[in-house]
Task: structure prediction
Amino acid sequence: MKKQAVFLVLITLLIFTKAFSQSNLNNSECAILNPENFNKVIDGKQVGLFFLKNGNLTAAITNYGGRIVSLCAPDKNGQKADVVLGFKSIDDYLKATGVYHGAIVGRVIGRIAKGTFELDGKIHSLPINNGVNHQHGGLKGFHNQVWDVKTVTDSTLVLSYISVDGEMGYPGTLKVEATYQLTSNNELSLKLLATTDKTTIVNLTNHAFFNLAGEGNGSILDHILTIPSNYFCAVNPDKIKTGEILKVAGTPFDFSKGKSIGADIGLEKSNEQLHFGGGYDQSYVLKKKKSNKIVLAATVVDPKSGRKLEVLTNNLGVHFFSANFFKGNDIGKMGKPFHYRESFALETQDYNSPNQISFPTIILKPGEKYESYTIYRFSCLK
Result:
């Protein structure tokens, strides 16, 4: 056993050494990031920063929470900017008031009312971390865990994490694998796979915040957003899904034909659902039945830079959040504060809550495989 442990440590060190050796090559075109600022041991596990490059995209990802730290993409003139909000060191992530930046979130994304759900006739209690509710997997959810590094290449990073039975109150030992890959088609893809040894609930996502003008470069209210959906999920004042699915037609939530994010956001005083979210903070229905078919979830265009982002997924829905609560308390890697509505999130996910039996299930049983695919595809308008 001792020899095996030493071997595993040596393999881990080799992986980290390779990633660090690539840093000067892959980090020279965009955000200034020093991998040494991410070299830290947390909960007995080594944290690092890993640089990927392919096509016109470069990315930096840390195994602390599987976070996208940086994603650099060219504009219509070929000038690159970092379009994902992130921090310049692991210490900045640890002290940030916004705790989900770029992270893989789980075991269940979103809010669970009063931190309880029933599964196979048993009530499970989860820790409360959002008012009287459980949110985004709890304080020690997947975003605050150090993931194991399985594979690193120039364009691919494979991470894994084992969430033990009872962690944050969830039943079953869940084995998760996350594969980030940059493609020559200017795509960053994320494949999330999970299996369990006991019936449980799973609904994962990545919580990256984007600004297509570049991190710290002002409001996203002029970005043009298209969500090809006719329905969104209603919430109560605690932003818990009620189980009601509403039509977007005739409401501020209609992005089916494309409009600026800021076009109707000022109606939050007169629109109850917009008011509950303090802006946009709602899940959209992309399809009603589970399948692995990948569909377009959203398209965003920054008119000034010409950058275009298409988000594709096999999930049933996408959650749109317009960064309604940032107050400039956190300083990003570019040295600029994160302000109110200067970024947006498009979180691909199944739109269920475990307490809404009318919604498609997020239950995972032994012998089954959870599969979630997200593609961030970049291009430019001339």
Remarks:
- The radius of gyration is 20 Å.
- The chain has a mean pLDDT of 92.
